[in-house]
Specification:
The complex is a heterodimer of chains A (about 120) and B (about 110). By secondary structure, chain A is mainly β. In chain A, about 0% of the residues lie in helices and about 55% in strands. In chain A, a hairpin with a 3-residue loop joins β5 and β6. At the A-B interface, β5 and β9 of A face β5 and β10 of B.
Chain lengths: ~120, ~110
């Protein structure tokens, strides 16, 4: 059974980079045809799509980012570790949220989710 | 961005009752790429419905989705205790950014 687990620092200083990893177990990213999504949720608020990386076979990846975050966000895959990474540069308090990784059959559509990780941007 | 407006904001019902949740889009949703999620406190969202009316794996048939264009509905035929939670709709239209509605809370009356 596919399982996802987010990891990374829970506290990031303003202007620094938020770096998270989604550890995938019970299945291989490599060779899969899937959309791997990052979604965030600010405390007490609703859900916000951050970005998606699509895998198709072993070598074809494409990325999609929320336009307002595009200049700051990068999503990548490390097949050797079976992990998906999210980097968000120049962090601000507005980036404070629970970050979820998910896998599904479409952009932002996830049928498998990690438990989420709270990241606070504060000095 | 396409704005999704969910109504009502809060729905107060008793177990066994029928729940009808609405999601209205500010623009036409092509290909009916509209999904519904349930979220309980402290848990990640759980996919219920995708492409308007297809139930995700393991979702009981008391959950159903319908709609087209700009108006979509999630219906829960008979509320079970575990169904009291927050529900979100989410859209994807090619060439736009995916967005979520603000949520409808289904609470015990």
């Amino acid at each position: 059974q596919l399982q996802l687990q987010e990891s990374g620092p829970g506290l990031v200083k303003p202007s620094e980079t938020l770096s998270l990893t989604c550890i995938v177990s019970g299945g291989s990213i490599s060779g899969s045809n899937a959309y791997w999504n990052w979604i965030r949720q600010s405390p007490g608020k609703g859900l916000e799509w951050v970005g998606t990386i699509r895998t198709s076979g072993n070598t074809y990846y494409s990325t999609y980012y929320k336009p307002s975050l595009q200049s700051r966000v990068t999503i990548s895959i490390d097949t050797s570790k079976n992990e998906i990474s999210l980097e968000l540069t120049s962090g601000t308090a507005a980036d404070t949220a629970v970050y979820y990784c998910g896998r599904g059959g479409g952009i932002a559509v996830s049928d498998t989710w990690g438990q989420g990780i709270l990241v606070t941007v504060s000095s | 961005d396409i704005v999704l407006t969910q109504s009502p904001g809060t729905l107060s019902l008793s177990p066994g009752e029928r729940a009808t949740l609405s999601c209205r889009a500010s623009q036409y949703i092509s290909n009916n790429f509209l999904s519904w999620y349930l979220q309980r406190p402290g848990q990640p969202p759980r996919l219920l419905i995708y492409t308007t009316s297809y139930r995700a794996s393991g979702i009981p048939d008391r959950f159903s989705g319908s709609g087209s264009g700009t108006d979509f509905t999630l219906t829960i035929s008979r509320l079970e205790p575990e169904d009291f939670a927050v529900y979100y709709c989410q859209q994807y239209v090619d060439g736009t950014s995916p967005t979520f509605g603000q949520g409808t809370k289904v609470e015990i009356k």
